[in-house]
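Q: Got a minute? One more chain.
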Amino acid sequence: MKAITFEQFGPAEVLKLCEVPEPTLRPHDLLVRTRAAGVNRADLTHRRGGYGRPDFGDSTLMGLEIAGDVIAVGAEVTGFSIGDRVMGIVGGGAYAEVARIDYRMAMPIPDSLNYVQAAAITEVFVTANEALIHLGKLQAGETVLIHAGAGGVGGAAVQLAHALGATVITTAQGSAHQLVRRMGADYAIDYVHEDFAEVVASLTENRGVDLILDFIGAPYFERNVNALNFGGRLVQIGIMGGIENAKIPLDRLLYRHLQIIGTVMKSRSQAVKHAMSQRFRERWLAEFGHDGLMPIIDSVYPLAEASAAHQRMEEGLNVGKIVLTA
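A: Always. Here it is, folded:
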């Protein structure tokens, strides 16, 4: 089969389309003819060497998110058959014509969605559901601040929070404000020209928000804590802005009874990942398509142009998901 490989860590140009062996079928596996694969920031880290030469459980090849057709079923698989359209998170191997996925991580593609749309759902929406609801305990009527609302996980979180009945504040570049409002944001903050903490204080009459989802890290950390209401929760799901000089106002943490929670899907056990996928499937899968939830697609590239897709993400040009088609 054809797959994206690279001989050495480096810039996007190291990615090449090559012939590699197809994956073998294990008892709990589905083999899937990949029709589309989502591009995620973890893929950039993989390419640069941030994980070394990892085996995430399904493949040493790059890529964590697939949509396609089942072509083989392991002996211990239940609930899936050859020919089913499936999507899901894989432990590597999405950037290939054939991938294998633990059937407990797979879910059927809703009839109203095509493969490109399906490939843009699971990584971001499962992560958003975990951060917002399972860990963040967001309730209808609460107010949430979601940073990077025009990004993959941020955009998914905006949609889920809106569907849940929360008041949604998000940060995004001014050019993306119309998009995030369409997704369900009640208020959009231009993080380039506005201090989000000051805007939140104004919008909430200095009460603060009940929950914050943050991808940035140290540059936002102190302001995030100060922007929380009594009993507020901060869920840290990224450190794109680094970790140096992060300051925490301990008095605020203590006297406001705040909670700070960190989560990274990649380092969780397989059993925990199964549970995360199941929680998302049971709560939200039926809501996709028609007038319900919908992934935001930025751009689509053929598998052979994975380097161009990576370049677009690295330059921060994408608003929504980048998808590869195989």
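A: The chain is about 30% helix and 25% strand.
Q: Perfect, thanks.
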